[in-house]
Structure formats: C-alpha cells, structure tokens
Amino acid sequence: QTVLRSSDTHPDGYPTVEAVKYFGELVKERTDGRYEVEVFHSAQLGQEADTIEQTQFGVIDLNRISIGAFGTQVPEATVTQLPFIFRSVDHYHNVLDGPIGDEILAAFDSVDVVALAFYDGGSRSFYNSSKPIETPDDMAGMKFRVMQSDIFVDMVGALGGNATPMPYGEVYSGIQTGVIDGAENNYPSYDTAGHAEVAKYYSLDEHLMVPEVLVMSKIVWDGLAPEDQEIFRQAAKDSVAKQRELWAAQEVESKKKVEELGAKINTVDKAPFIEAMKPVYEKYVTDPKLKDLVERIQATEG
Amino acid sequence: MEYWILFGTFTALMLIGTPISFCLGIASFATITYLGRPAIVVFQQLNSGVSVFTLMAIPFFIFAGDLMMRGGIAARIIAFAGAIVGHIRGGLGQVNVLASTLFGGISGSAVAEAAAVGGIMIPQMKERGYGADYAVNVTSMAALIALLLPPSHNMIIYSISGGGRISIADLFTAGVIPGILLAISLMVTAYIVARRRGYPTEPFPGFAKAFQYFIISIPGLMLIAIIFGGVRSGIFTATESSCIAVIYALLVTIFVYRTMDFSNFVHCVTGAVRTTAMVLFIIGSAASFGWLMAYLRVAPILTDGVAQLTNDPLMVLMLINILLLLLGTFMDMGPLIIITTPIFLPMVTEFGVDPVHFGVIMILNLGIGLNTPPLGPVQFVAAAVGKISIWQAMRSVWPFYGAGLLVLGLVTYIPALSLWLPGLFRGH
Amino acid sequence: MESDVKNGLLAASRVFGGVAMVALWLAGLGLVAMTAIVAYQVFMRYVMNSSPPWTEASSIMIMSWFIFLGAAVGVREKFHMGFDVLLYVLPPSGKPVLRTISDLAIFAFGFGMVWFGGELALRGWTVRVPVLGVPQTLTYLPIVVSGLLICLFVLERMALRLAGEPVDDVETDQIVSEA
Ligand code: NA
Ligand code: NA
C-alpha cells in the first residue's frame, strides 16, 4: 500500500482540497486500497513555484496548482492565462472539456509532469477602495496589486492602471492605508482574505479565468502499471464534476458574505476592456501554433 | 525512525556546538537521504526560505539600528529619558526602562537595545552606587520592550512562519499595549528593588535643561512618528518602512548630528551584513527543517497528542507557554519562532485562539527566553557590558523575571490586551 | 619540511582571508543596493505614481546573494550562533574532536549546497524569473558559490587544526545576535 503526497496552497475544506481528497477516495477504492492520497493543504510543502519543482523531482507525487504558477514554461498553457480568452464559464468549460483541453493537458509532458484534469478557479475581477470600475478609463492612475507575472503586469498597464508589486500578506493593510487602491481575485479569495472589508468596490470584468490543474510527477507516473495509470486518469476526470459543484457553492456563499460586508458589486461592459488587450495578445501570442490555438478557443461555442 | 534522525541529528550536533543553522540543514539533509527521496528539495527550501520580500525588513531594521547606535541617536534619547524620570527613587533604573521604551519604538532588536541602552546606562549606574547586577537585570529585561513595540522584525518572522497571511500591521499594533504593560511592570519592579536596596535619586535638572535634551533628541524620536505616520497614511508598507528607517537614520546622522563618516558607515554595513546573514541563514535552513516536519506530519501528530491531554484552550495555552519557556532557555528566538509556529499555530487556532494574539504571546514568551541561560543573548550582552558573570546576574534577577511572567500571564489570558488596538484600527 | 607545509598553510590562509573580505564587501554592497532599490520603489510609487515592476524580484534576488555570501564568511569568522553544552562537561582535550566532527558536518552541508544547488541552477537555465526575465539559474547560484566558499573555509580550518594552529581558541569579537 502506497501513500501519495499531494500539495495544495489552499486551506482545508477549500473546493480544490476537497476535490483532491475525493480523487484519493476513488483511487483507493478502484485500486483496492493499494494507493492512498494524502493532501498537504495550506502550502505546508511550499508555495506553488516550489511545489512544481518538487513534483518534477519526484519528491512529492501529486500537486493541485494554478496554471498561472507555470508562467510561460508550458506555451500551450500560457494561452489560458490571457485576459478575456474565455467569454463565460460555459465557454471555459466547453474548451477545457473538449479536445483543446486534452491538448493542453498533454503539453505538460514537456515539463516532466503528467496533467490529469482541470479544476475550476473561478473568474477574477478587479476590486478597489474608491469607486466602481465601469470602463478602462476608470482605472487610470490606480494602483493594483497583481501576481508577479509578465502577462498580468502588462494587462494592468494596458488598462491604464499601475501594476504594483506587493506580497499577498500586505495587500489588506496596503489597501486599508492607501498604499495601493486595490487588487484582483475571485469571490472566494476576495472574501476569505478579508479584502472585502477594505476594498468595497468589486467590478465584475472577469478578466481572467485561469484553470487549476491536478498534476502528477512524471517519475511517479512512469512507475505505475498501465492499468493503474488508467485508474488515476479516470478518477481525476471523475473528481472534476465534484470540484465544479463545490466551487459553484463556494462562489455563491462567498458572494453572499461579501455582500453582507457591504461590498458593492457592479457589472461591466467588457467590450472596451477586451479591445484594450490587443497589445497584450500581440506581445504574448507570436508563435503561429499559439495563434492557431487562440483562434480555436475563440471559435469554440459557449 | 525518520523522526529520530531528524530531531536526533539536530540535537546531537547542537550539543557539540555546531551552529544552529547547520544543525537544521544537516538534520534535514540526513533525513531526506535516509528516506531515499531527492535531497535537492532541502536546498530548494534553503533558498526559498530566504527569498521572501517581507524578510527584507530584518536586514533593514538591523542596519538602521546599527546606524542609530553608532551615529549617537540612541545616546541622545537616553539623555532625554534621564532628564524626565531620573528624580524617582532608583531613578537610573527608571531611566533605563524609559530609554528602552523609546528606543524600542525605533528598533526591533532586543540585543541592539541591550547594547545601546546598557552600554550607556550600566557604567553610569555602577558609578553612582547601583549594584552591577541590578543594572544588568533592568537592562536585559527592559530590552525586551523592543520586541513588542513596533517595529519588531520577530513579528515579521512569525507572520511568515505562519504562512504569510497574518497581517504584519495588525501584529505591530497588537504589541503596543503589552509593550507598555511590560514597561510599567518593570518600572514598578525597579522602584521596589531600588527602595529595598536604598539606591539614590537623581536631581531633576530643571525644565530648561530637560527641554534642551528633548530638542536634541527630537530627530531620533521623529523616527517613531515617521514609521507610524508613513505606514498609517499609506506612503509605504510595514516592510518598506524598515528601508525608510535606514534612509532616515542615515540622513540624521550625516546631516543633523554629523556623526557618520565613511569608515563608520562601512562598520555599520558590514556589521549589519554579518548579523543578517547569520539570522537569515537560520531562517533558510529552518525552512528545510520545516519542510521535513510538514512532510513527516509532525504537527498533526503533536496536535493529536495534546488534544488527548486536554481540549481546554486555557490549558493548551498554558502547556504551550511552559513548553516555549523551556525551549527558550536553550534556544534562540528567531529559530524557535520559525520551528514552532507551524506546529503550534494550527493547534491554537483549532482551539479558537486568534493568530495575532498568539503571535504576541509567543514573542513575549520567547523574549523572556533571551534572558535565560544557557542561551540568553540579551542577558549575555548586558552582563558583558556590566562586567559580571551570568551567575551573578542570576542571583537577583528573580523579581524581574516575575514582572515579565506576570505580563505574560496577563497577555495570555486577556486577549483584548493584544486584540483591542488592532481591532480599533481595523474599525470593527 | 614540516614547517614548509605549515608556512604554506598560513600563506593559503591569508589568501582565504582576502577571499572572505571580498565576499563580505560584495555582500555589503548588496545591502546598500537593496536599500536603494526599495527606496526607489517607494519613491516611484508614491511620488511618481508609477511602480517599476522589477523592484520586488530584484531586491529579493540581491538579498539571497548577500545572505549566502555573508553566511559563508560567517563560517570563517565563526559568527554563526551555536552553543556547546558538551564542552562544559568534557575535558579540554575533547574540544578539537568535537570541533572536527562539527566541521565535517558543515563540510557535508556545504558540499550539498554546491552539488544540489548546482543541479537547481542547471535546471533553472530554461526557466525565466517572472518579470525580470533572467534565467532562474541566477536565483540558485548564490547557494553554489556560498557552498563552495563554506567547503574551502572548513577545509582551511581543519588543515590549520591538524597543523596545530589554535583555530578553536580564537573567538570572534563581533557582537552578533539576532533577537
Ligand atoms: Na520595536
Ligand atoms: Na534562553
């Protein structure tokens, strides 16, 4: 009987953590208890960039990770980090559940991990302490904290805002004291980090829908019998529905909580935001293969 | 077996005098090798343990402290403190505590504070008939105020060890009332002991002279206002304030006091580099050690153990306090925060203790450990300045330990002492 | 003959002293550079309302360089904090033995820093540091350099000890502590 270690940066009870646990139960059941999965939640084994390397070394077996943490290492996956690449949650699901999703999963082979399934990470929108954002002009001169990634920095710049580097732990007090005006994230993070207390305006531009991905170490994968590999792959696919259900429930709950805290949520006409992203696409989608991939994603229904 | 290798290697190497950072690193290296898993992860964690933006506050505050000490900012603050409380019985003891409180508001290092305040106060106290042991004990305990009053880089270490999600601004604010409480209880203790020993008072120098000392020390005291004001008004973050402290200390010592020349500056830089490298190398190797503890599930195992003993939060806190005090007698603060936070924090939050409150308990508790042999760096510095042995200091330290433990008890069991002020700033 | 070896050792030791000095100065330069970068970051954000994106990543990288360089210097200057309870109960003749065991352990770790740090650095060649765009090799190189210096400094000390030099009696006069 083998215990496989899986990392997650989210706390216990979070949809991704629970989904990997569920995946573990399926694996245990279908391998008659030969394999078990233990989830190390709350970044116990390190931040995402570290745990990716650890998965590659084979020191940990499984990893639930945001595609964003792979940066530009996997070109096909970079495409999913482009702002407004997905029009809606349905579009996002149609793309990832279809052949394009399988193509992106397969691309992870080049970085020594086996990608098993996509989970939902929700859509990210901007929030700030001073006003609702309706057009890109509203963002002019405003300071937003984004993750340290070139695409996200360029995205804020293209919208006229200032991408301000800041450790996540300082964002709350940074917004409160006015060092920055706001940040961007999905409902659950906006809620659990307490940022809704200090940044009341949540503007639903839904600029990013970065998928979460469950990956397995290539070294560990290669040591599995082919029929076990099939069991793992299928169990991962089967855990997706569960994760989406948990995620949707979490979003509803978080939205309710931030509204109770007094968050003012406004919808946004996305067209001018999408228009502003042209230079970002020009900068990051240069390879003809990626151009083709972007076109196929855009042509997918939903 | 792997648990024995991890903790056994660490303990054995520590006993033979291997530096703590290497004890942590080698224990991790040995354990991962024993487990037959790729040892590369130990060195990855060594690096990512120190590659954290908020850690930058440590070199900056240490650097700023060196500049303030060598540039005479500390000496001027002490002269001012002497003018206002010197006339109370055992006056210089009070001066010592007040100076530590003021200096503690600009420095986060208890050792720097013991060196700065003690270096000036202890010789004076001895000269005027105070016992060297009294001077040393007042200095070493009052130095702990620096840990509680903002800025405090140990609170930053705590925040990072707790996963980086505990607000540093909240921790800084939470330490203020406990810091003032410690100052008061030490002033009272210093007064009582001084009365019983019949120590003299200092004549009040007159308002004119006191005012003059105040004016001279303004540039130094302004740093408190600049750090607090700058963070609160959103000019810079708590981490960045440490860099501003360096710039400000440089400006004051170069242009106002004119005490900083190039060779002084080089001394400050190399001194700060040595201290920082020593501290942060421990943080890096402790990250490797912490990674192995997580991998081996040490925390859940211990939590289950404690949960079987008791599930009363008050008892849990008491057990943890006793354990930390014991550990603190033979280990230093930074590494202890780093090693024990990942174990204790999930445990106490499970029992409903606020992470910010627990941070204050931990800092004060381990601060007291800085004054207990065999490893008590603050006590060592104070005793070295006072030219007495640790054993001479130990004979009369008990009332001062008592004052510290009393405040620790209050802080542990009255959460509002820590949480009221940050709540006020957060507005709920 | 024996004294030739010893003189050679002492000469080599002076060279190592110079190496340590250079490392310390480079580290000091790093601290000053980091101060300038963070001050620049505050200035650009607050005064110019335009945050340079590279300040965070570059100051972190500089910090890890000066920490690991400084840590190597610390092995030679013996400013790393430790405490030796056993020395109080053992006869004085036990000291060189304990110190040798300790040095061997430090050497092993230094070797690990070179070996595995080297592997990390090599793997990082194709990975770019976000925002800075430089290879991740630069992130891991400080470990390799520091490990190399640590191994050299420990070998130096063990050689001097074998040659009968009083390496274990000299204590550093720097007051370094952390609290
Ligand atoms: Na302080
Ligand atoms: Na101690």
TrEMBL record, chain B:
Domain TRAP C4-dicarboxylate transport system permease DctM subunit: 7-417
Its membrane topology: Multi-pass membrane protein
Domain of life the protein comes from: Bacteria
GO CC list: plasma membrane
Record keywords: Cell inner membrane, Cell membrane, Membrane, Transmembrane, Transmembrane helix, Transport
PANTHER family: SIALIC ACID TRAP TRANSPORTER PERMEASE PROTEIN SIAT-RELATED (PTHR33362), TRAP TRANSPORTER LARGE PERMEASE PROTEIN (PTHR33362:SF2)
Identification of the protein by name: TRAP transporter large permease protein
TrEMBL record, chain C:
Keyword Transmembrane helix set for record: yes
Annotated Tripartite ATP-independent periplasmic transporters DctQ component domain residues: 34-162
Cell compartment(s), UniProt: Cell inner membrane
Membrane topology, as annotated: Multi-pass membrane protein
Pfam family, one: DctQ
GO biological process, one term: C4-dicarboxylate transport
Record keywords, A-Z: Cell inner membrane, Cell membrane, Membrane, Transmembrane, Transmembrane helix, Transport
Entry GO CC: plasma membrane
Single GO molecular function: transmembrane transporter activity
Membrane-crossing residue ranges in chain numbering: 12-37, 57-75, 96-117, 137-155
Signal peptide start and end residues: none
Keyword Lipid biosynthesis: no
Family in the record: Belongs to the TRAP transporter small permease family.
Function field: Part of the tripartite ATP-independent periplasmic (TRAP) transport system.
Subunit structure: The complex comprises the extracytoplasmic solute receptor protein and the two transmembrane proteins.
Name of the protein in question: TRAP transporter small permease protein
Originating organism: Devosia oryzisoli
Phylogenetic lineage: Bacteria, Pseudomonadati, Pseudomonadota, Alphaproteobacteria, Hyphomicrobiales
